[in-house]
Design a protein that fits this description.
Distance between the termini: 17 Å
Helix content: under 10%
Structural class: mainly beta
Strand content: over 45%
Largest sheet: 3 strands, antiparallel
Oligomer: single chain
Radius of gyration: 13 Å
Length: about 120
């Protein structure tokens, strides 16, 4: 599921390719804890804020808001680092996708990591 940039609504989108798909990669990840669950991502993956702009996961602070599929605010309550195995990044038809540890902790991530303002490259 991703967000249609034209309408701003959550929609189903196909995965066109994998930008990263390494099940054996050992990586230090950024963990954003919320009341709905955790979001675990690479530190320089771009996540959407409540207003729709994107910032790197490592730049979120406690109190910042993430964008959810229904447009509500999901407040960051904790930030930390943790080691994890596996690195995945799909390229979708909408150039974004919702990801999280559970259906309640889903937040909008852009396909392109390591880029400031990734929506300009979509």
């Amino acid at each position: 599921m991703g967000m249609d940039p034209a309408t701003g609504l959550a929609t189903f989108t196909k995965i066109r390719a994998w930008l990263h798909r390494d099940v054996m990669a050992d990586m230090e990840m950024t963990v954003l804890g919320t009341a709905a669950g955790r979001v675990v991502t690479s530190p320089r993956h771009s996540l959407a804020t409540k207003d729709g702009s994107y910032i790197f996961a490592t730049n979120f602070n406690v109190g910042d808001a993430l964008r959810t599929p229904n447009g509500t605010r999901l407040i960051v309550q904790e930030t930390r680092r943790e080691s994890a195995q596996g690195l995945y990044s799909p390229l979708t038809g909408t150039s974004n996708y919702f990801a999280g540890e559970s259906e309640h902790s889903m937040v909008l991530a852009h396909n392109f990591a390591h880029l400031r303002k990734p929506q300009f490259f979509a």
